[in-house]
Design goal:
Number of strands: 9
Number of domains: 1
Shape: flat
Strand order of the largest sheet: 2-5-9-1-4
Helix content: 10-25%
Oligomer: single chain
Order of helices and strands: EHEEEEEEHEE
Largest sheet: 5 strands, mixed
C-alpha cells in the first residue's frame, strides 16, 4: 500500500476529567476522531499529493504521522509536524516534535529534525512546511495537543 494523498491537521483541548478525554477532544477538533489511527514513520511517497482536510469514513484504519503532547494544569505544551519534498521530487520526509515548549521552539526543533533526516538520507529538500499547536493548560484540567500528517485511505 502506497498512499497517494495526505492532509495535515491539528487540534488541542483540555478536560477536567482525564488526559484521555482531552486527547479525544483534540482528535475531534483535528477531524480524525472517527479513525482507527495507526502511527507510521516519516516518509512521503513520490507523487503523494497534499489535499485539504477531508472526512474519512467512520472506523477507517488510517495511517498517520502523529506528534502528541499531554500536560497538567499550568503547563505549556506543544506538538508540531514538519514536512517537505525532495528537490528531485522523489518523495519527502516528515518530522514530529513535542514537549513543554512554545511555538518558536517547536518550529526550530522540527526544522533541525528535518534537516538531520535529509542529511542522513543525503537529499536536498524544498520548502519546509509546519503545523504547530500549543496550549497553556488551565488550572484543574488536563491538556492535549496534537499535530498529524494523515495519509488518506483512498482518493
Amino acid at each position: 500500500m502506497i498512499p497517494q494523498a495526505f492532509f495535515v491537521t491539528s487540534g488541542k483541548a483540555f478536560s477536567p476529567i482525564s488526559e484521555l478525554n482531552a486527547f479525544d477532544l483534540a482528535l475531534k477538533r483535528a477531524g480524525i476522531a472517527q479513525c482507527n489511527l495507526v502511527p507510521v514513520s516519516s516518509i512521503l511517497p513520490a507523487g503523494c499529493i497534499e489535499k485539504r482536510r477531508t472526512k474519512i469514513p467512520v472506523g477507517s484504519i488510517t495511517h498517520a504521522v502523529i506528534a502528541r503532547m499531554d500536560g497538567n494544569e499550568g503547563t505549556t505544551i506543544g506538538a508540531a509536524i514538519a514536512w517537505c519534498r525532495e528537490k528531485e521530487e522523489k518523495g519527502g520526509i516528515v518530522a514530529e516534535a513535542h514537549g513543554y515548549m512554545d511555538r518558536a521552539s517547536l518550529r526550530e526543533i522540527a526544522e533541525w529534525k528535518i534537516m538531520e533526516m535529509a542529511k542522513i538520507r543525503e537529499i536536498k529538500v524544498n520548502t519546509i512546511h509546519y503545523q504547530i499547536e500549543t496550549l497553556r493548560v488551565p488550572m484543574d484540567n488536563y491538556g492535549c495537543v496534537l499535530a498529524s500528517l494523515v495519509f488518506l485511505p483512498e482518493i
